[in-house]
Recover the amino acids of this structure.
């Protein structure tokens, strides 16, 4: 591992990539890598991209990357490997784009296996983002496969959250249902080359207008883009900069980083506690023995909860 870390220090992409694999595998080795990496992070800016499958997230990330590169930014891209049944069709396009980007030393692209069959976001997204940060990437773009929880998770990991919608499928309503309206800092109506796009964008604007936004606070804009034709991307880059400036003017960026770390430490701690409780404290065993009684009606579920609780001592 020390050889890999040396390589990493010297800016070798192959070393960084192998360290990411270690992070992906988790366990003690991953933790040892993080011990080395974490102190080297410099506070990169993180942008999350979420939205329904096939909305054009990868295409936009690619298009934006080219612009950010022209601006001289050093970029890391984390994509969830599109292994889900929803997004299998995009795989080839993703691969081709990734290859093009990978040949640019100013871009570090990595796709990570998603957790579970529903896609979402990878367990080690935070760690990989930190590694890219420590590797000198000042801007990290994180794409999720938009299903269920992942939107909310990416919001916890990003300074700016971009919600990408498309005109065709009544996305506005879907977005509200999925809670996307709450988490988006910028809304993108992609596929503006489709006839319905402007109308759909106005729908989203109308919905957003209902949001309670205090005077002077950020009101999420709606940007029309066509990742296919490359239109609207400069506008989107401008909006991202505005949101960044808004956060900075209120000195919120460091506070957000603190909150991100807070939720991360808490998450990791709770995972560990759950494991320990369930496997090492006898709770799992007691549960197995007594659940029959709950099933047969001689004990209530809450009685069993109290019994389990007795095994845990929290001072
Ligand atoms: N017409 C049109 N097609 C687009 C546009 N943007 C993306 N597409 C196409 O839509 C399909 C899906 O694009 P992706 O960028 O892979 O979408 P995604 O949101 O990353 O998809 P998943 O990662 O699978 O959820 C591809 O065939 C793209 O070429 C656009 O602005 N206009
Ligand atoms: Mg994609």
């Amino acid at each position: 591992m020390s050889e890999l870390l040396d390589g990493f220090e010297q800016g070798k992409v192959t070393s960084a990539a192998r360290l990411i694999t270690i992070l992906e595998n988790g366990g003690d080795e991953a933790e040892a890598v993080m011990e080395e990496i974490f102190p080297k992070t410099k506070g990169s800016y993180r942008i999350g991209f979420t939205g329904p499958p096939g909305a054009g997230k990868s295409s936009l990330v690619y298009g934006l990357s080219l612009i950010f590169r022209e601006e001289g930014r050093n970029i890391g891209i984390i994509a969830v490997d599109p292994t889900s049944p929803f997004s299998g069709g995009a795989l080839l396009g993703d691969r081709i784009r990734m290859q093009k980007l990978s040949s640019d030393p100013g871009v570090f692209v990595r796709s990570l296996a998603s957790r579970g069959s529903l896609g979402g976001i990878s367990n080690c997204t935070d760690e990989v983002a930190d590694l890219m940060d420590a590797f000198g990437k000042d801007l990290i773009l994180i794409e999720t496969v938009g299903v269920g929880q992942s939107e909310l998770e990416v919001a916890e990991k990003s300074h700016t959250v971009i919600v990408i919608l498309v005109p065709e499928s009544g996305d506005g309503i879907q977005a509200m249902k999925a809670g996307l309206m709450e988490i988006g800092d910028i809304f993108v109506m992609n596929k503006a080359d489709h006839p319905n796009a402007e109308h759909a964008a106005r729908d989203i604007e109308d919905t957003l207008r209902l949001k309670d936004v205090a005077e002077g606070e950020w009101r999420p804009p709606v940007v029309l883009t066509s990742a296919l034709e490359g239109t609207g991307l400069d506008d989107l880059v401008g909006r991202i900069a505005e949101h960044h400036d808004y956060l900075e003017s209120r000195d919120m960026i460091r506070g957000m980083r603190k909150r991100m770390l807070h939720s991360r430490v808490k998450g990791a701690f709770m995972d560990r506690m759950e494991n320990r409780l369930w496997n090492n404290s006898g709770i799992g065993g007691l549960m197995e023995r007594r659940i029959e009684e709950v099933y047969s009606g001689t004990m209530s579920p809450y009685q069993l909860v109290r019994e389990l609780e007795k095994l845990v001592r929290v001072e």
Remarks:
- Residues 83-90 have pLDDT under 50 and may be disordered.
- The first helix runs from residue 2 to 9.
